[in-house]
Amino acid sequence: MSTGHQLRLYNSLGRRLEDFTPSAGVAGLYSCGPTVYSYPHLGNMRPYVFADTLRRALRWKGTAVRHVTNITDVGHAVADSDTGEDKLEVAAARERRSVEEISARYTEAFFADLAALNILPADEYPRATAYVKQMIEFAASLEEKGFTYLLPSGLYFDTSRSPGYGALAMMDVAGQREAARVDYVQGRRNKTDFALWRTEEPGVRRVMRWDSPWGWGAPGWHLECSVMSMGLLGEHFDIHTGGVDHRELHHVNEIAQSEAYLGDGRPWVRFWLHNEFLLMNAEKIAKSAGGGPRLADLTQAGYHPMAYRLFLLGGHYRSQLDFTTQAVDAAQATLRRLLTRIEPLRPLPEALTLRAARALLAAGDVGAGYGAGAGYGAHADKAAAGYVEQLDAAICADLATPKILATLQESLRDPEIGGDGLRVVAAAADALLGLRLSGLDPREADRRRSVRDLAPAQVAVIERLIAGRSRAREERDWPRADQIRAELESLGIQVTDTPAGTAWELR
Length: 507
Ligand SMILES: [Zn+2]
What we know:
- With 507 residues, the protein is α/β, with parallel strands linked by helices.
- 43% of the residues lie in helices and 14% in strands.
- The chain is built from 17 helices and 14 strands.
- It has helices at residues 42-60, 87-95, 99-116, 132-144, 173-179, 223-233, 250-262, 295-300, 305-313, 325-342, 354-363, 378-396, 401-413, 419-433, 442-445, 456-474, 478-490; strands spanning 8-11, 16-19, 26-31, 64-69, 148-151, 154-157, 194-199, 217-219, 237-243, 269-275, 278-280, 321-323, 493-498, 501-506.
- The chain has a 4-stranded parallel sheet, with helices on both faces.
- Helix 1 (42-60) links the parallel strand 3 (26-31) and strand 4 (64-69).
- Helix 6 packs across helix 7.
- The protein is globular.
- Residues 32, 225, 250 line the site of zinc ion (ZN).
């Protein structure tokens, strides 16, 4: 039996689609993780849903993966600069907590969002503060090899010594300078040079500080990812992921220092994958203090986290997505329809691979209690097999999740396919999409329509407005009736007038 379609991924290094095969039995995958100084907003979570899709694609193809996602709890300066204050120290001062409390609090919030979004846990979540000793050794090795120079403000990487610097960004030096932000550092030789170690200014004592050959201070931001990825995945590994905002600076610098450190003339990492931004235009979703809307804001508004995941997967990871209330409403409605349709097919086989899906269909025995006597036969098998191959083609085409969703929906409408075949197709699609189609209750999944979630006082307010509107209508006071309708709509209430009276529901 063939292994199906060849997995092809868009490599930012060279900006082209390439065939992906793991270089060893286990594919090494590193994803740049969060800086834990505030709650993640919805856009912050897109890179992890994307990396999760990649993991599911590899699992589907039968490739074992070792996945590392880092937690940045030191070194990330405000404005991504070399000279600014540390983001965690700023947050600690603002919230009057210790940096440890800040880190613990927001790491926990990040993990909660990962779990809510049904993201497969990484094998390791290393924290930067646990690797400072290794970072110092790494920087000392670069110094020994002559890639650095020392300034009063710290130890700098000399990018002019790095052949091919910035190849990932595909920008000229002027563009690189732009990407390096306007960040004046006295004595810096090239504008693209970056700090490996940030030495304390005289008279200023950092909250997080370590002793080093270059004085007391803290590591530069880029260092941790090189050190922790090599420490946990080996010197060279297969795939590095992150948001597209990392492509022009953070990842360029990771590559420069890592290849200088290794010095073996080989590319450090073979594949660099970047997800596009999420644009925020969700005027109806309350903004959390100091940031964009969070997953918690969505769930409080009655949306299920899987609706947000479905919204993301409805676009390709390399496309910008505009987050609007209408778009997430549509995703919620699609989720509900999918769950309602799939619920009678349960239980579904879990974590299907292409090989397992084909084997189930070939055996014609998908599970107890289904299919027998339901007009299920070789013809239906063939239809299901066709859909499984379509799913394989879609995931192999640079993780085309919109196509996977479309294929799933098509199979659910197809009169030619039998219950057993459909179970395999639905399970295969969900192994790739991770929408919890195998277990989520359709009624639980959409709480927006559930009036029982409203407090009695809220219901009383709504009923009073509805009564006022009915009175205005009886008195033919249309402007007043329209005004009340607008007020109800602003509360998220949909009003429908029927011959039997006025009905309302939560939108
Ligand atoms: Zn990183």
